[in-house]
Amino acid sequence: MAKMWAGRTAGNTDRIADDFNSSIHFDSRMYRQDIAGSMAHAAMLAKQGILTAAEAEELIAGLGGILEDLQSGKLEIDPLAEDIHMFVEQVLTERLGDVGKKLHTARSRNDQVALDLRMYLREELDGIVKLVEQLIATVTAKAEQYADVIMPGYTHLQRAQPILFGHHLMAYAMMLLRDVQRLADCRGRMNLSPIGCCALAGTTYDTDRRFEAERLGFDGICLNSLDGVSDRDFALEMLSALSILMMHLSRFSEEIILWCSWEFKFVELSDAYTTGSSIMPQKKNPDMAELVRGKTGRVYGDLMALLTTLKGIPLAYNKDMQEDKESIFDAVDTVKMCLQVFDGMVATMEANVDNMLTAAQKGFINATDLADYLVKKGMPFRTAYKISGQLVALCIQEGTVLEALPLETYLTFSDLFEKDLYDAISLRTCVEKRSSEGGTSLASVKAQIAYVKEQLK
Ligand code: ARG
């Protein structure tokens, strides 16, 4: 079939070239945005007297009919069409005759595709923000449920100081909150309309770009037509924000995977979010967490692909830019799936409270507090630090822990020790004393939970 743009050439491209050139199999997902954009365009053309009111009405009704028929399945997307923009215009012209051919006045596919993509992505972005907010609510509810459960906090993956499980979970709530903020920030720059930039230089028609932008829910318009048609920063920003979000989910996944292992056994995942092995009957594998960690690489790849595609192309539109969609669509689909599965996995995750406490009791994670105890009785910190270290060494040698050493032993190291030392080094005291703002005390964890809940409102 001859192309709509046939004229300068016969428009009969080679079949392989046709397939290569076509983007219909991935850009057809933007049909709703394409139709809404065209409706606003027809309305603007009529308002400006470029088309008659009757013509615009006919176009808008025709576009509405196409939308309905696509949604009901009465009309199928033609896989042989070049892209969604050509497909809609072609059907419209088939249905309306010559009036259909007037729709593309004072616009180009270059500003049209940029418009559709911005409209499509802003909707997906809003959906993703909702999913992240849902996950934040779930993580915060878990933190509330396990607010006062003691676990070892780690540095270098070595037991360091006791913390509350609620505190650990709230660290992820804070990261996810930043992800929401980043996406909202990106949406502001995304929500400017490129329509009316036309092919590259604007148009000789007396158009009203702001009218069209407002109709389509934009906050403003792109102020340079060359930039308007060739800017894909909004997609890159969204990909960056999604990559950072995935990095957070991946770190969380990694911890969940560790916590599920027999070496830790801090948490138990629901059977609904684990799988078995085809050969090893004892296995319960945290596949969902592993897949989220794995798919993070894929989303980073999408970001790198688009950055690389854009880096060498001169102004304004070049066909390279058609490659923008598959990367960002893949990232959007992947992130949405990851968020949904992750939410269910965390919601049903249970903590093995006893195992966490046992682990916290074993790593001498109260040694800092023992040193602080002596400091508060007047000993210089370095001396106290050394004595605490020697006591830890003694415990390791004798296979015991600081809490179990008799007072007589303590007294051979310093006569500042008294019976109250046991309370000072109890894990509960160690946690509760860390009441500095943002610290691990229960009051602090509760304040964090209240803050995040307030932000979600
Ligand atoms: N399918 C194309 C894309 O996704 C539409 C723009 C084509 N513009 C052009 N001048 N060939 O980028």
Give a verbal description of the structure:
The chain has 457 residues and is mostly helical. It has 3 domains: 15-101, Fumarase C, Chain B, domain 1, CATH 1.10.275.10; 109-133 and 162-357, Fumarase/aspartase (Central domain) (Fumarase C, Chain A, domain 2); 363-456, Ribonucleotide Reductase Protein R1, domain 1, CATH 1.10.40.30. The protein contains 19 helices and 6 strands. It has helices spanning 15-21, 24-27, 31-47, 53-72, 84-96, 109-145, 165-190, 209-215, 225-230, 233-260, 287-310, 324-347, 353-362, 367-376, 381-398, 407-411, 421-424, 427-432, 442-456; strands at residues 150-155, 158-164, 192-193, 220-221, 267-268, 350-351. The strands form 3 sheets. The chain has a two-stranded antiparallel ribbon with strand order 1-2. Strands 3-4 form a two-stranded parallel sheet. Helix 4 (53-72) crosses helix 5 (84-96) and helix 6 (109-145) runs antiparallel to helix 7 (165-190). It is elongated, with a radius of gyration of 31 Å. Arginine binds at residues 23, 27, 83, 109-110, 113, 317, 319, 321-322. Residues 23, 27, 83, 109-110, 113, 317, 319, 321-322 line the site of arginine (ARG).
